[in-house]
Amino acid sequence: MKNFNKNTMERVEVMALFGYEMTPCQPLNFRRRGEDETEITELLATQIKFAGETALHIFDVLVGRERVRLEFNSRDLSWYLTQ
What we know:
Blueprint: E1 9-20, E2 23-31, E3 37-39, E4 42-51, E5 54-63, E6 66-73, E7 78-82
């Protein structure tokens, strides 16, 4: 399993499904720089936080047995792997 460093914020590319049933956005997999895609096993929780005019969409997900967090910045449309 890949090493997910805690307490970091790393920009990643995410493949997500938008407008699916009751979930407006569901990340499916992500890619770290220089690595292969990592499949998301399960979506655990979602929340939205507002920082000024920016909405941060936060997704707690499972990758295998590892719990990680993805954040989507609605202002510049960027994704980050955090935690």
